[in-house]
Amino acid sequence: MTLDALLLNALLAGIGIAVAAGPLGCFVVWRRMAYFGDATAHAAILGVALALTFDASIALGVLLTAIIMALGVFALSGRGLAIDTLLGVAAHSALAIGILAIALTGARGVDLEEYLFGDILAVGPADIALIWGGAALVTGLLVWRWSALLTATLSDDLACAEGVSPARERLILMLAIALLVGIAIKVVGALLVTALLIVPAATARALARTPEGMAAAATLLAALAAVFGLLAAFQWDTPAGPTIVAVSAAGFALSLPASALLRSRRRAQG
Amino acid sequence: MPRVQRDGQMTLLATENLAIRIDGRSILSGVDFAIESGEIVTVVGPNGSGKSTFMRALIGALAPSSGAVKRRDDLRIGYVPQRLQIDPTLPITVSRFLNLPVRRPAAAIAATLTEVGVGDIASQQMTTLSGGQFQRILLARALLATPDILVLDEPTQGLDQPGIAAFYRLIERVRQRLGCAVLMVSHDLHVVMSASDRVICINGHICCEGAPTTVSAAPEYRALFGLGTQGALALYQHAHDHTHNHGGCSHGEAAE
Q1: Does A211 touch chain B (CB under 8 A)?
Q2: Closest-CA residue in chain A for B23?
Q3: Does B91 contact chain A (CB < 8 Å)?
Q4: Number of other residues whose CB lies within 10 A of the CB of residue B36
Q5: Could you tell me the CA-to-CA distances from A48 to A54, A179, A181, A252, A262 in Å, in that order?
Q6: Distance, CA of B77 to CA of B186 (rounded, Å)
Q7: Any idea which fold B3-76+147-255 has?
């Protein structure tokens, strides 16, 4: 495969992930689910190890462990446990055990960095199909549940009074995050998946007046970060995940003075 | 949730021997309650007495530990929470908020905003509203559902005295228009006593209930609210007697 074809594959993969990460990242920010995102992503490393051990598809292993982590956290949440601590324990244990497991099966010559930081050279047509299929599923879920998700995000009680089950919406979001982790790990890596969710959404906040506007802006920003990050990663032969996130973070830093200006102008207008 | 059949009776919401335990601690027990269509019922009780828990159980946000909550089929609840903390990372305009979770016609939104007295803030961000504006938007949102019952959990918390009075006058007005029942938790006792058909005094269970004058005379109520409240009530009833000129303090007699 030529370098151009590799780059094209990577770009297609990156944009596919961004399309799902934009709106999903907004919910992660609004509902403060960053730690949950980390727990799910770190569990994915364990999924890689399990897939290698049992000679199964890595994508499948990652997706399954991410979903199991999501379901586990969902089952334990709302039981009065300190969810923050619980997620911290789960996230870091999953990462540690996953890395350990890969080290123990290291004889197969697995490059751990590939899964921690992403590897665009590894993206083939099958991966792109998987990524776009997963992204379509995540986006479809969010569009379908949008009003209910927003209502439950504003207030559990308000949602209940309207016949919306906050627990069901929370579960849908958790599964969507698990799905995104499953498709994004190859390009962005387990350590930085959450950053791809949070940074574009955080940047979009200052630009938006409505939830939909913020989701659209976050999608655009995530896509830009993916494209420029991947181009830079190709140019300088740097790991894909960190490069994309660094570009995204630079965008966030640049947006700070701009958003301060916007705010003061809005205040001046009353 | 079991539902009350629509069999001619007009009970909107009811509980049967409702108990709520949270983390093994009993918050509410043995609550038998019903509210009929068009009725105004106020729930009073000291802090931590389970008032908000009771409301949350009624709207379905808390599952009963035992007993049951029943609602009429297709009951539309307009719920106004005690307070709503919108995360500062969530940009949302007033009009977008009013369209959740169901899109409403623009004309209905404009009319409702005018009705609650904040006709000109539809395009503002929710986070920029004053406390009074915010409560009115919450009420507007509840009204847009054309509710059979308005459930308000201390809706005037954080409002100043004139704001509280204005808010209750507003609730009275929309109730007359919609003919809906109103169930509210309130600390504003003199308002409660003037506007309610029935008062329920909760302290982990229903300690007493009935017409406002009956309840304020009940020893259970007096034991809970003590002297300070009696003073406030006396003050109110004084004004009340003046207005309606019942002559003498009939309330004092009822207490005996």
Answers
A1: yes
A2: A80
A3: yes
A4: 16
A5: 10, 15, 12, 31, 44
A6: 18
A7: Rossmann fold (3.40.50)
The enclosing domain of A204 has a CATH number of 1.10.3470.10
Q: How much is the pTM?
A: 0.85
Q: Which candidate in B89, B94, B95 is best for mutational testing of the A interface (most A CBs within 10 A)?
A: B89
Chain B CB contacts of A202 below 8 Å: 89
Of A147, A160, A213, the CB nearest to B100: A147
Query: Domain boundaries in chain B?
Result: 3-76+147-255
pLDDT of residue B226: 59
Chain-centroid distance, C-alpha A182: 9
Q: Report CB contact under 8 Å: B101, A155.
A: no
pLDDT, position A1:
58
Chain B contact for A30, CB < 8 A? yes
Residue A41 β-bridge partners: none
Q: What is the mean pLDDT of chain A?
A: 88
Most confident option among A85-94, A148-157, B231-240: A148-157
Count A/B contacts: CB-CB distance under 8 Å. Answer: 73
Domain containing residue A91:
3-269
A115: amino acid identity, one letter: Y
Establish how many alpha carbons lie within 13 A of residue A204's alpha carbon, considering only the half-sphere containing its beta carbon: 34
Q: Is the pLDDT of residue A108 over 70?
A: no
- Residues in a beta bridge with B198: B41
Tell which residue, A60, A34, A36, has the closest CA to residue A47: A60
Name the domain count of chain A.
Answer: 1
Nearest CA distance, B84 vs chain A (angstrom)? 7
What digits encode the pLDDT tens for the residues A125-145?
989 999 999 999 999 999 999
Helix (H) or strand (E) holding B135: helix B131-144
Partner A contacted by B170 (CB < 8 A): no
* Chain A residue with the nearest C-alpha to that of B144: A162
Q: Which residue has the higher pLDDT, B243 or B132?
A: B132
Pick from A146, A155, A207 the residue to mutate for testing the B interface (most B CBs within 10 Å): A155
Those residues with Cβ within 8 angstroms of residue B16's Cβ, 6 or more apart along the chain or in another chain: B32, B67, B68, B70
Q: Which of B23, B90, B125 sits opposite A30 (nearest CB)?
A: B90
